[in-house]
Structure of Zinc-dependent peptidase:
Amino acid sequence: MFEKIFALLAGDEEPPELIDDELWLATLQSVPLLTALPPEKQNRLRVLAERFIQEKQFCGGDGLEPDAAMATRIATLACLPVLELGMDWLAPIREIVIYPAPFLVRHDAPDEFGVVHEGYEALSGEAWGHGTLVLAWPDVLESGWMDEGHNVVIHEIAHVLDNGNGAFNGFPPLHRSMDIGEWTREFTAAYESLNRQLDQGAVTLIDPYAATAPTEFFAVTSEYHFERPDILARAFPQVAKLMEEFYSGGR
Ligand SMILES: [Zn+2]
C-alpha cells in the first residue's frame, strides 16, 4: 500500500525523499513534543522516520486507509524512543495496523478468585510479540501534547524495547554502563510503592495503569519520560534517572 504513497523510482535516478519538507514541517508543527526538540535531534529523527516508513508495512483496520501524514506521524513518534539507541531496537516490528477508533479485543482475565471473565476490552494500542503494532488513530492524535503524559506510540514502542530480551517484564536489555541490580531494585521499589499508594486509595501522580504489571510500569513511565519528565522525577526520582540513562544510550 505504501509503495504507492512513497513511490521509489527504479533505475539510476535519485530516489525522492520519503518524507517531503512540507509534510515533515507539518508533522513537527502538529506535535508539541516534536516541535520542542532541538533542530539537530529533529534532523536525526527524520532520517530514522524515513527508514521506519521504508522498512515497515502500514495497514489499516476497519476500512481505514493510512495516508502519508499518518505514517509520518506514527513513524516519527515511534523513532523518538530509539533516537539515541538505534533502529536495531525496532527490528522486531514488521507492520503497523491503524484502526479508526479504539479497537475491541477478546480479553479472558482471571479475577482474584481465579474465575476467568471472558469479554471484550477497548484498547488504544497493542504490541504483539511477533512484530505487529496495533494503534487506534484517535489515541495517536492525542499523543505528543506534553500535558497529561500519555503517548500511545511511545507506550507500545516501550513494550517492544522491554521484549528485547524475550519477555514483557519491565526489564529491557540494559546498556553495558548500567547496573542491573540498581534497575531491578529501583523499579521494583517504585512499582510496589505505586501499588501501595493505590491500595490506600491515594491519588497518584502516575497513571494507575502503571500498577497493573511490571511491563506496564515500564511502558507508562516511558511515556512520562518523554512527555512529562517533571512528573516522573517528582513521583519516582530514581526511576526518572534510570530512564534518562536508558533512553540516552547509557552514556
Ligand atoms: Zn501496555
